[in-house]
Every structure is written in C-alpha cells, then in structure tokens.
Amino acid sequence: MMPSHSELVTSKPVRLVIAEGHEIVLLGLERFLSSLEDFTVVGTATDCPGSLAAIRAHRPDVAILDIRLPAESGLEVAGAIMREGLPTRIVLVGETINDRESLEALRLGIHGILLKEMAPRLLVQCIRKVHAGGHWVEQESLRRTVEQLLREEVSPRPASPPLTLAEVRIAGVVAQGARNKEIADHLGVCESTIKNHLHNIYTKLNLSSRGELARWYRTVARPNGSPSDTHSSRISRTTPESRSMDAYVAAPASGVGDRSANGHR
Length: 265
Description:
Blueprint: E1 14-19, H1 23-34, E2 39-45, H2 48-58, E3 62-66, H3 74-84, E4 89-94, H4 99-108, E5 112-115, H5 120-131, E6 136-137, H6 139-154, H7 165-175, H8 180-187, H9 191-205, H10 210-221, H11 228-232, H12 245-250
Helix pairs in contact: 2-3, 3-4, 4-6, 7-9, 7-10, 8-9
C-alpha cells in the first residue's frame, strides 16, 4: 500500500540503508521505498558485516535493520553504530520481537521498533518520524517491555548457573570486542568451537546478544574492573598451532582486545 498524499514529505530525500536477511524481502523493501520521492536507498545488505560496512561508508540518515540477520542480530549492528557515535538513526524490524529483544533495543537507545506484519504506510510513517528526531515503538512491544522492566525492579534475580573459568575468560574477550573468527584463528580452533562456547554461555546466563554479555561481564563478572579483565581480553601472538583453548583461557597474553565486534554465535 502506498502512503497517502496527506503524509509528511520532506524537502530533502531521507538517505536509507536497508539490512534484511531475505533477499526477496530486501528487494521488495528497496523498490517500495525508492518509489517514494522523499526517500533514497543508498545501500543494502543481507548480513551484519555488510550492514556495518554500508552504514560506515554511506552514513545514511536512517538504517532499517532486520532484527534476525543471518548468524547474528540486528541488535549487534545497532550496538556498534551507537558505540561508534555514527549519526545514523535506527529502525529495527522483525517478524516477531520478544520481550528481551525489545528491552535490549530500548536500553541501546534504538529510535524505532516495528513488526513486519504492519502495513507499509506505517513503515513510511515510522521512518519519517525517526528521521525527524522522534521515536516509534510498536505498542504491544512497548507494553510487554515496560511490564518486564517493572518485574525486574520488584523481583530479585535468581542466581545464574556458574560459568567455568574458561567461559568467564571467553566472555571477557567478547566484552572487549574480539570477533569469533579472530579468537578462533589465534587459538587454532574452528570458529564453530567458539560459537559453541558462546551458545553455552548465553544459555547459562539467559542472554541473547554480545551486548548483553558485555554488560553482564562488566557488572557481574568483573564489577570492579580487576586486572584479570585485561588478561581475559587479549589473544596471544603465538602461532595457533602452539596453543589450545585450555592454554588460552588459563594464561594472559597480548592481542586484539581493542578491535570492534562483528561476530555473534
């Protein structure tokens, strides 16, 4: 459905980057939004690395992010945009958005949240409102998120299942920004091994993203910023063949703790 003539049309086209995991949906969004005179699509992507590259290269006014990009979450892209201080405003879209994802989106400061089942005209209105400096949150998602926040305020949190020493130190590496492939390459293990460790950590802690894991590590695992933070965030420069996972998690080293994160599970 095309937007009505009564809807606001800006004098200068709003520059958009669209990140959508399904190419046929991406093509439809690109054609629809490009058909509107106040929008111009400057970049598209189907995964998180491509999304970040397009946003960094084009610095669009608004980025439309699929919350479930292949292998990773649109929340990871949003978190990176926020950390880097890019001027792009963010609209998060998904077939479904659960309570935890809504809560994380609000904590990150994402500007718009919209379900894909909504009418196309609502997406147009959402983009225009977000571009104008406002916020747009689908009402049901907002209601559930506020209820979840209230429950967290009044209910004590149950103790999390304990992580192993290896898992705590892997969490520290991830919290410092190392990507799965970087960790795997330096340890001489498959990237799937790192993903399995992260899956176990997320399951034990009931987390869903690297951003949540970083927050947990800073506030729970190392609330006082002890020296072991630095140790756990570094990767040795020795050859991958010379180190195993056990050797890595048991010893401090030097490496890539300051690199930005693009990987997930």
